[in-house]
Structures are given as C-alpha cells and as structure tokens.
Q: What sequence folds into this?
C-alpha cells in the first residue's frame, strides 16, 4: 500500500461494545514483517471481506471493503474504497448498487458485500474490483480517478453461460487472480458444488457489442 515493495495487511476488528462501530486498519509490511499501523482507516462495522489493489495505478495499494450493513441510502450493501499513499489511507468513499451510474442488482440478488477481490482484469495497469453477491458478480473497473460506476459489468449464472444446478450460490466466494501469467486477472468463483474459472475477457465489455457476454469463457474447472 505504501509503494515500498512490501505487502501490507488490512485488518478489521470490533469490540463487544454497542457504541463501538469497529475499524478497518492497515499494518505496514517491511523486510522484518509487519510493523506500524498506517494513519487513517475505514469503518469496520459490517465489513466481512477486504481486498487491496492499486485502483488508481499510482503505485500505492488501495483498500476495498465490503459492508453488509444496509441503510436507507443503499439497501443493497456497499463497498468502502480508501486510497493508499506513502502517508497512509485517505478518507473512504462508498459505492453500491444505489450509486448513480451503477447497474441495479438482478432480481432476487442482494448483499453487495459477500466477497470482494481485486485484480487487473483488462491488464491496463489499473486495478479492478469484483464484488460477489449471492447470484451475481459485479466487476468494477479502475482508472486514474478510481473505480468508475458507469463501466461496471454484472455477471450472473445466465450471462456467464453457466448451467449449474448449484448456481444459486454463484458469486458467494470469488477471487481475481492471473492464472496464465498474461497480466490480466481471471475470475474464480464457487457455485456450491463446483469451482468455475472465467477468462479475464468475460469481465471486459467487448467494444461495440455490450450484449455479447461470456462467450469467450475459456474453461470451467470442476471438482
Ligand atoms: Ca492506488
Ligand atoms: Ca484494469
Ligand atoms: Ca490471465
């Protein structure tokens, strides 16, 4: 997160106190392990999943945290995004299905927080974020200005061409990881009884053909 070449650790904690809303903090990595806590933080209440990726492409990792807490402003859940720098974490911003420009959640799908993961799905140097819901995966694209709501794509079992009897659990547990070493992250998702792997191109809208969904899926791994 601090651009020094050492990975840092994001931690969320809360204490058993009704007045305590918890806090998300980051501990600095070093050649000898974790050291001091970075200045700044993000709300920890309701956070069940945290990822670090360089969304703005500035060399500093940024924190993304999924928050299950549903409020009147965004009943579908939200993610916190806190930009990292040499000095620490900046104030967080929120994104969710209720954010202007974001696609609405598919019918019957909620919980914009179940699993968050970061990786560069289009190999453009800007980290991207996937948010798993029970029944859908949102792919949010990073850029110089951060995550863009308008470029978000929503994968569902239907759009991902997944005929699986356990697909109702599609998206509950996801990981973006570059498996084939081409710099573009693939999407790994569990679907109850199976694990599916999607090529990075399913997350990138084909230019001029927004309706062409996961036709480029490279393969599915079953266990
Ligand atoms: Ca950054
Ligand atoms: Ca990217
Ligand atoms: Ca790849």
A:
């Amino acid at each position: 997160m601090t651009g020094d070449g050492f990975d840092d650790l994001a931690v969320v904690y809360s204490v058993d106190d009704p007045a305590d809303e918890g806090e998300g903090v980051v501990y600095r990595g070093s050649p000898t392990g974790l050291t001091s806590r970075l200045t700044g933080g993000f709300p920890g209440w309701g956070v069940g999943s945290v990822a670090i990726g360089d969304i703005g492409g500035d060399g500093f990792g940024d924190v993304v945290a999924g928050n299950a807490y549903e409020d009147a402003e965004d009943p579908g859940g939200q993610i916190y995004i806190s930009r990292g720098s040499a000095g620490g974490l900046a104030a967080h911003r929120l994104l969710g299905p209720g954010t202007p420009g974001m696609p609405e959640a598919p019918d019957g799908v909620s919980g914009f927080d179940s699993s968050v993961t970061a990786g560069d799905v289009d190999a453009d140097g800007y980290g991207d974020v996937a948010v798993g819901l029970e029944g859908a995966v949102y792919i949010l694209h990073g850029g110089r200005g951060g995550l863009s709501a308008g470029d978000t794509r929503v994968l569902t079992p239907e759009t991902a061409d997944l005929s699986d009897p356990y697909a109702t659990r599609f998206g509950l547990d996801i990981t973006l990881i570059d498996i084939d070493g081409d710099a573009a992250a693939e999407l790994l998702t569990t679907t109850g009884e199976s694990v599916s792997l999607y090529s990075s191109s399913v997350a990138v809208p084909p230019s001029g053909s927004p309706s062409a969904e996961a036709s480029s899926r490279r393969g599915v791994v079953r266990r």
